[in-house]
Amino acid sequence: MASLGSDVWRAICDKFTNAQNLTESRNDPENDPFRSKYKARELLREIYCSLKSFEAVDGEEDSSGESGDQRPIEPPVDGQREDVFGQGFSGDSPAGLRAAKLGAIEYYLGVNHIDTEELSAGQEHLMNCMKLLERCRVSSENVSLFIHVRNQLGILWAGRDETETAQGFLETAEYIYQRYMKEDGSPPTDMTEYFTTEEKLLTHQDRTKRFELAYTHTMYYLAQVYKNLGETERAATYCHTTLQRQLKLNQFSPMEWALNAATLSQYYITKGRYMEGRHCLSAATVISGLAGEVPSEAAAQESETESERREQLRQKRAEIARCWIKYCLNLLQDAKKLLEDNIGELDTDRQEELKRARRREEEEEEEEEKGRKNALLFGSEDTFDSIASLEEKVNCLSPLEFTEARAIFLVGQNYVTQAKEFFQMDGYVTDHIEILQDHSALFRGLAFFEEDLERRCKMHKRRVDMLEPICIDLNAQYYLLIRRQLMFELAETYNEMMDLKLSLANRQADTQSLDNHTIKKFNSLCSASIKYFQMFLDSLCSPEGKLPEHLEEEVLRPALVARFRVARLYSRLICSLPSIQLDNLNKSLENYKYVAQYCEAHPEAAAAVETELELSKEMVDLLPLKINRIKARMALNN
Fold this sequence. Notes:
Blueprint: H1 6-23, H2 35-57, H3 78-81, H4 94-115, H5 119-133, H6 143-159, H7 163-183, H8 204-228, H9 232-249, H10 254-270, H11 274-288, H12 297-302, H13 304-339, H14 348-376, H15 381-391, H16 402-422, H17 429-447, H18 453-473, H19 480-506, H20 516-539, H21 553-572, H22 578-601, H23 610-637
Helix pairs in contact: 1-2, 2-4, 4-5, 4-6, 5-6, 6-7, 6-8, 7-8, 8-9, 9-10, 10-11, 10-13, 11-13, 11-15, 13-16, 13-17, 16-17, 17-18, 18-19, 19-20, 20-21, 21-22, 22-23
């Protein structure tokens, strides 16, 4: 500004520097947490008044941007967006630069009010900044301010759940950045340099870094906006770009970055994009290491800060380990879906077909995979090798045979051990049990590939051994839903073991020739499955022991399937006494009838159990004939 003498200008610059320092202060007392920010606000107001007074001396018209209509500025349509750029990027007029300086103070006042939880006042100042910028065209002198104010308005409206309004501001900020980089691209003036003496101006490198960081924030906020709008693919793309840019600019907190990368991996694996998921998790593990070593227990006991840091590091690394578990588990489960036949066993023809297809495709996909990798790579040269080394330890292709499945299982099991070290039963009951359930599911995924039925049965026994004690000890009042999950899984696991034992026995002889030990073992497993299915059903009953007339949607299928399985299990119990066999068949019929009658009374339930319902209706017709034949034989014998 022409009328500002060097001494006056230096005083303004000093005030601005003091305001910045106060804004970043972390020394305010708990009972006055915004004291420094209030002092910074006063200094910013004084600067604003000085600028306005000198502007008046220069004959400028009043451009204070009084509040007026404070409705949010709508995102411009494509044709309007061109207007903010004017003709080229040769620089703004002196009047435009003065408006930008006033706008910058309005921006900082807006952020100050938002930081002190005065959102309406903050919005007013940000809108004033927007109005002042209407007098400017985008140039290297003010493009940073154009983007910053829209970022801040995007955050403000997103916090009010006005997602589409936030989207408009942020997408405009994105457009301004992209257009500027395409048509100019020189390191732009940072807003702080409006109030900096010439000898303290930033280097080109620092200008570039600050400008790129502002755009990184735009990407980050857009990722949140798209997530809230349900545009998950777009949100994942922006999140990935944000993480890449944070590493490139070296502007990140290692543990926060690692958790965000691990969380992003969960999106990729649900979409079957295991290469991307593995890369995110490998990068998360490597970058989390930059946070340093976990303080020893002795050091933690000596210092409250060290104790807190120890717990945070241990927890966040355990959370990353849990994301690795999900990666391995989903990879095994997806492979099972790919390879199983219509009764859930390994389809060997399909297996061979996929092996041949993979061999054919490996060379063709090499270039495509290289392109995908280059697009998603994280890190600098210092971290590339560490990330790549970790990636090599776990496959990202669906396992097609036991050896490949076992390698994935062992990686998952290693992370189970790591996760349980922090999420222990004492203090983290729900988390600990969820990890055990994932461990159980890993065994189940591996068992699918195991050809040796005896070894497969032992894998299921491991599942029982880890889940049964927990299920028995859990307090039914506080952990009812978890107990139901465990009951159902235990019932199904015993059922699978029973089928395996029978298959093993039938390879040697028919059912009529089973030895007493085998029959006893078979009946024991069958009874255990019945017990846990019945425990599940009992958990749905009222205190008087009655099942509800109408099953809630979340338990409808499990309850009807449990009834169907109990019916089937009772009919399979092996016994020599006709009276006991008759009793078992009557119990079986009773449960088949329940499934058929419930679906008849509630037609909407039929869709949830189509196969079970069809078989139940058949058995309701057939079992009475079998029961009558046994009764007839018993009458003859008497």
